[in-house]
Amino acid sequence: MSDDRRDDRGRQRGAARSQGRGHRSGQAPSQRSRRTDPARTAAFDVLREVDASDAYANLVLPPLLRERGLTGRDAAFATEVCYGTLRLRGRYDAILAACVDRPLDRLDPDVLDVLRLGAHQLLGMRVPAHAAVSETVGLARDRVGAGPAQMVNAVLRKVGRTTLAEWLDRLRDDAPDQVTALATVGSHPVWITRALREALHGNGRDAGEVADLLEADNTAPRVTLVARPGLVDPAALADGSDARLEAGRLAPSARVLASGADPAALPAVADGRGGVQDEGSQLVTLALAAVPLDGPDARWLDLCAGPGGKAALLGALAAQRDATLVANEVQPHRARLVRRGVRALPDGVVDVRTGDGRAVGDDEPGLYDRVLVDAPCTGLGALRRRPESRWRRTPADLGTLTGLQAELLASALDAVRPGGVVAYVTCSPHLAETRHVVDDVLRRRDDVERLDARAAVRDVLVPGASIDLGADDGGAHGLDVQLWPHVHGTDAMHLTLLRRR
């Protein structure tokens, strides 16, 4: 494709048209069909919202599908092409870079998103090549104009001439080192790939598992539901609907949605007796509630409660023991989500507050028996659910987050009474956000001991279930729990349990 027909943003006129040889339709432009199918249009619009507004696809796509009346196969197609494109963006960008005659960052972002959508249909879905190209070209014509549509057509035809296996071999061969090859083929930034390898090794696993971990991050997770104890029995979670549920592998409160049903259509989810919650999230919450205590067990605290999944499960457990839960959240809009999450619990069980968790230890020292610190983090453990996060996070984020995490954990240890228990939880396996934060806080205190979180988790498993938590290094870190998508089918939740002496 010659540069003299295209500007530096990827917009061009075709060779035949620029030389006066182009075929002219007998139809007026207004009479020609310019629209692609609604599913691809919806997927594209979500990608643009994600890119332009830093939105999350899992918050944008469902309401957009409802607004446009997309259901069944159309909704499923839109969901797959949208999430698949986001997950495998790094891989597709490397392939597209080999097919476009300029750096990708010189293309209009909307053109680049169209190309990514087309690449996923060609290489990641069972869409016939001719349909993938023609429909994506139609999308380009509809959304970004006729000139870019011609470029999209040429680039996607070039992409489609090589099989996925051949492309992956080429990407591996072109990579300067093994980590870069893993990152490109596995569609993760290099720094995240390296951090995940280190986290695997640091938690007693083979660093070579990283390829399986990246693949798990790129696989759509099934929807996991929680049956909140005392509000609904797990076996009755789907009552009143046609949904099929399967028992969770690890947490007794978990049920997995076996079909493509909308979880919000289940009456128990709609009224708050149940909810959508990853099984790993359920497991670490149950473990905190199950740790034996000497003395009172009446006042619990969720220090960083938004958006409220763990708070609702903790609140349900507290209600069964005549305990109360303070659910603290610094962001008012997230506090509103917590209130909605706990709406089915009896009045007076959960007190939702808006405030800075770092101040609670000073304001209410030694007041609580159990404290959960579900610390704000990079979210590297939930990349399969929020794939766009991998492209937004940078190593620079760690400095800000780890400082905040340490302050919150210190506040929690001040807020818990002697003999009480604190659970430090992150949805990230990064060593800087897990063991390094805990070690840093504990170096400055002599009144805290690490508990066996592995034993606590095993105590709350589904009867008869077993769990592979990696090799025990025989030291303090061997007491912690790190879950993994490729091993446990959960988000990569971390759990450290601490007791105030």
UniProtKB/TrEMBL annotation:
<feature type="domain" description="SAM-dependent MTase RsmB/NOP-type">
    <location>
        <begin position="199"/>
        <end position="501"/>
    </location>
</feature>
<comment type="similarity">
    <text>Belongs to the class I-like SAM-binding methyltransferase superfamily. RsmB/NOP family.</text>
</comment>
<feature type="active site" description="Nucleophile">
    <location>
        <position position="427"/>
    </location>
</feature>
<dbReference type="GO" id="GO:0008173">
    <property type="term" value="F:RNA methyltransferase activity"/>
</dbReference>
<feature type="binding site">
    <location>
        <position position="374"/>
    </location>
    <ligand>
        <name>S-adenosyl-L-methionine</name>
    </ligand>
</feature>
<protein>
    <submittedName>
        <fullName>16S rRNA (Cytosine967-C5)-methyltransferase</fullName>
    </submittedName>
</protein>
<dbReference type="InterPro" id="IPR006027">
    <property type="entry name" value="NusB_RsmB_TIM44"/>
</dbReference>
<dbReference type="GO" id="GO:0006355">
    <property type="term" value="P:regulation of DNA-templated transcription"/>
</dbReference>
<dbReference type="InterPro" id="IPR001678">
    <property type="entry name" value="MeTrfase_RsmB-F_NOP2_dom"/>
</dbReference>
<dbReference type="InterPro" id="IPR029063">
    <property type="entry name" value="SAM-dependent_MTases_sf"/>
</dbReference>
<feature type="binding site">
    <location>
        <begin position="304"/>
        <end position="310"/>
    </location>
    <ligand>
        <name>S-adenosyl-L-methionine</name>
    </ligand>
</feature>
<keyword id="KW-0949">S-adenosyl-L-methionine</keyword>
<keyword id="KW-0694">RNA-binding</keyword>
<dbReference type="GO" id="GO:0003723">
    <property type="term" value="F:RNA binding"/>
</dbReference>
<dbReference type="InterPro" id="IPR035926">
    <property type="entry name" value="NusB-like_sf"/>
</dbReference>
<dbReference type="Pfam" id="PF01029">
    <property type="entry name" value="NusB"/>
</dbReference>
<dbReference type="InterPro" id="IPR049560">
    <property type="entry name" value="MeTrfase_RsmB-F_NOP2_cat"/>
</dbReference>
<feature type="binding site">
    <location>
        <position position="329"/>
    </location>
    <ligand>
        <name>S-adenosyl-L-methionine</name>
    </ligand>
</feature>
<dbReference type="InterPro" id="IPR023267">
    <property type="entry name" value="RCMT"/>
</dbReference>
<feature type="binding site">
    <location>
        <position position="356"/>
    </location>
    <ligand>
        <name>S-adenosyl-L-methionine</name>
    </ligand>
</feature>
<keyword id="KW-0489">Methyltransferase</keyword>
<feature type="region of interest" description="Disordered">
    <location>
        <begin position="1"/>
        <end position="38"/>
    </location>
</feature>
<dbReference type="Pfam" id="PF01189">
    <property type="entry name" value="Methyltr_RsmB-F"/>
</dbReference>
<keyword id="KW-0808">Transferase</keyword>
<dbReference type="GO" id="GO:0001510">
    <property type="term" value="P:RNA methylation"/>
</dbReference>
<feature type="compositionally biased region" description="Basic and acidic residues">
    <location>
        <begin position="1"/>
        <end position="11"/>
    </location>
</feature>
